[in-house]
Amino acid sequence: SSKVLILLLVNGHNGSEPGVFVNVKRNGTVVASHDDEGSVSYDTMLTGDIGLTTATTSSSTTGVILDSPSTTSAITYQATVISASATTRTHYVNRPKTTGKNYGISTITAMEISA
Question: Which residue has the higher pLDDT, 20 or 32?
């Protein structure tokens, strides 16, 4: 009956239009989606877009997710960056597109909340 509170910060740069979204997965299945994925019904707040195409610095997007995994087994959470376009795009995580240097950090924190 426990829940898992996930705090997410993804730093990066949108390498090309139209943009990039962030999804959160539990054991490979999307549990929170930044895009219009209607099948996700979890308590979710994912904000922003990762870095404008024209910017020379990276930016970040944040998320707060309250997940109800209904399991006593070990769980793996992961943030995935996906393009908002159906065509192949290049996007950058933890750096701006104009340099190969790392200027940011992304974090995901999961806390079990007992019922």
Answer: 32
